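Annual report, structural modelling task.

Input specification for the zinc ion complex:
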Amino acid sequence: MAKLYFYYAAMNAGKSTTLLQADFNYRERGMETMLWTAKLDERSGAGVIGSRIALSAPAHTFDESVDLFMSIGEELRRRDVDCILVDEAQFLTQRHVLELCEVSDALGIPVLCYGLRTDFQGKLFPGSAALLALADSLVELKAVCECGRKATMNLRVDKEGHAVAAGAQTEIGGNDRYIALCRKHFFERLREGEARQLSLGLARR
Ligand SMILES: Nc1ncnc2c1ncn2[C@@H]1O[C@H](COP(=O)(O)OP(=O)(O)O)[C@@H](O)[C@H]1O
Ligand SMILES: Cc1cn([C@H]2C[C@H](O)[C@@H](COP(=O)(O)O)O2)c(=O)[nH]c1=O
Ligand SMILES: [Zn+2]
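The model returned the following structure:
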């Protein structure tokens, strides 16, 4: 039976690198893959999955308008597909995840999703919540905090490096906007950020 996998981690853990390695392994064995990433994340270029160690590959892009089951079905009419690889899986909708379940269960194709578990406030992304609920296999990849502990959280920072405690869930960025931290250091810095924003707000009144 084909499975749905969710490889999750904080930023900088090497999720994209691991996806590209899995893609290489499949293709090295003569198998065909289909890569997907979020349309809104263009850090490595539109429709490109990039890694910090400079590996990259073109990918199909998803947004709310895309039906993944239909798109993958259409591709199957043109060529064989042995594995589906999805980067930035935190940006999937719950409907997308249900479509990927169908790809795995009805089409018998393994689906490997890579993404963040939680956002800059420590809350689940919709795609991650659905994958945590529905995936057959949950695999944690490891990032490292400044203190050496496992980094599980993602702190959003402003241009001066101060923690950002409030804002929209989605804000594309890299090392300039986010720091992967262990939970202890994440909450320390987040509370500092909250206190700072509060004092700035009070000072303005
Ligand atoms: N040539 C490059 N140099 C530095 N950073 C890059 C380069 N290409 C891509 N990146 C960044 O690296 C990210 C993916 O890095 P990766 O090491 O696989 O960790 P993760 O996906 O867990 O954050 C990309 O999304 C992009 O922000
Ligand atoms: C924590 C957090 C992250 N994002 C964005 C920032 C990046 O564009 C991606 C994750 O990138 P990765 O290196 O491939 O892990 O997600 C966001 O929009 N909101 C957040 O809270
Ligand atoms: Zn730490």
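The chain has one domain: 4-203.
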